[in-house]
Write a structure and sequence with these properties.
mainly alpha, Tetracycline Repressor, domain 2, Arc Repressor Mutant, subunit A, 9 helices
């Protein structure tokens, strides 16, 4: 008789719930990219997902919630990958460009969706998805703080400024440059990263 404990499988109700969620996210992503965020309605998303509008509202309060339902899952995975293998021997500039390249590549693959996300993120502070946005931002700050702290220990920077302020400036540069880059009609990945690197290099020169 085998003593191996069987692996627990999700119940039928949970599998149906996850299936509906994936159909909603897939339909919303497709329509946001093809028709634009402003030109898409909940009713259209429901039609493409082959679900009722009422079912959509079980997963998201409104259209903006749907947008971030798509983005937040991607963003958490991106952040985990971005900070997973940072080279300790690289310069601070190389480390930062390595991290932010993950996000730039994601944005470059779907610039239209990225523009809607950055636009709708402003002053979005209520609801479950808004809380996840804040959590995602906190995760980036934690990763950057570890990089900056290690750089200080390794004498890569000599500034006596507080690490939190340095991290905030790094993040502010990333936000400003990525938005400026995405504002271009056809944002090019290499060009965007080069401009970001120049801006970060200027900051790091000041820290030295």
């Amino acid at each position: 008789m085998s003593n191996v404990t069987p692996i627990s499988q999700p119940g039928l109700r949970e599998r149906k719930k996850q299936d509906r969620l994936q159909r909603i996210k897939s339909a919303a992503r497709t329509l946001f990219i093809e028709r634009g965020y402003d030109g898409t309605t909940i009713r259209e998303i429901a039609r493409v997902a082959d679900l009722s509008a009422g079912t959509i509202f079980r997963y998201a309060e409104d259209k903006r919630d749907l947008l971030f339902l798509i983005f937040n899952d991607d963003h958490f995975s991106l952040t985990e990958a971005a900070f997973a293998n940072v080279d300790d021997q690289a310069t601070l500039l190389e480390q930062l460009v390595h991290v932010f390249e993950f996000y730039y590549r994601y944005f470059a693959d779907q610039p239209m969706l990225a523009r809607f996300v950055l636009r709708e993120m402003t002053f979005y502070d209520t609801g479950e998805q808004a809380q996840k946005i804040n959590q995602g931002r906190d995760n980036i700050f934690k990763g950057l703080t570890q990089i900056v702290a290690a750089a200080r220990i390794a004498h890569k920077i000599s500034s006596t400024e507080d690490d939190a302020m340095i991290v905030q400036l790094i993040f502010d540069i990333y936000q400003a440059e990525s938005r400026r880059w995405l504002h271009q009609e056809e944002p090019q990945l290499i060009n965007g990263l080069e401009v970001l690197e120049r801006a970060l290099k200027l900051l790091i020169s000041g820290l030295d």
